[in-house]
Amino acid sequence: MKGAGFKAFAVLAGLFVLLGASHAFAQVTLPSVNLGFKTTDKPDEVVNAVKILMILTVLTLAPAILIMMTGFTRIIVVLSFLRQALGTAQMPPNQLLVGLALFLTFFVMRPVFEDVNTKALRPYLAGTISQEKAVDEALVPLRRFMFNQTRDADLALFVRLSKIETPKTRVDVPTMVLIPAFVISELKTAFQIGFIIYLPFLVIDMVVSAVLMAMGMMMLPPVVISLPFKIMLFVLVDGWTLLVGSMVQSFG
Question: Which end of the chain has fewer CB atoms surrounding its CB within 10 Å, N or C?
């Protein structure tokens, strides 16, 4: 009887919850969205539709823009080199490395983003400058950052490959030429930092391998023994602080 009474109470409670939820949803007014095509004689409506399509296209390319025009490339490559040098397979996981790289990118690019917000975004939202002017103003701090991190040899390479007239100043360099030169320079810098990261861990692997061979334990993989020592070394020297500090300072 007690079990039957509890079941009846549970059923009644469930009904009250459903009735309350339906009443609450009945009081909520939800907006409706209509998508479709219609003919129009107003050119402004066509222009606004094209602008919306362009904005959606830019949003789909936002990850590529973030990777190609910021310090994200250098940071994520260096963090990947660190994980491979430690030999910890999937630790830290990819999501954690990408998240850390994103926040470090925002930290490094903060002065650039503040300039873009002050000189381009706010005036455009206030209606004081046009869209084309806002884009030009936003590119100025980004181009300055990329020029400071791009090697002259890489920039000269892409200027030559583009077959354009030799620019006299940095202002004359097209952005489409600057971006690949910047990416190549970032990859080169990241590989140099990765080489320096590998050296101490390589020494540990060689020492452990030599000791195992001297002891006749050639069937035991050296990675099994060297991994704890590499992790201990990295923790003792406060590796995360040294690595992150060096990367941030490398951007000048």
Answer: N
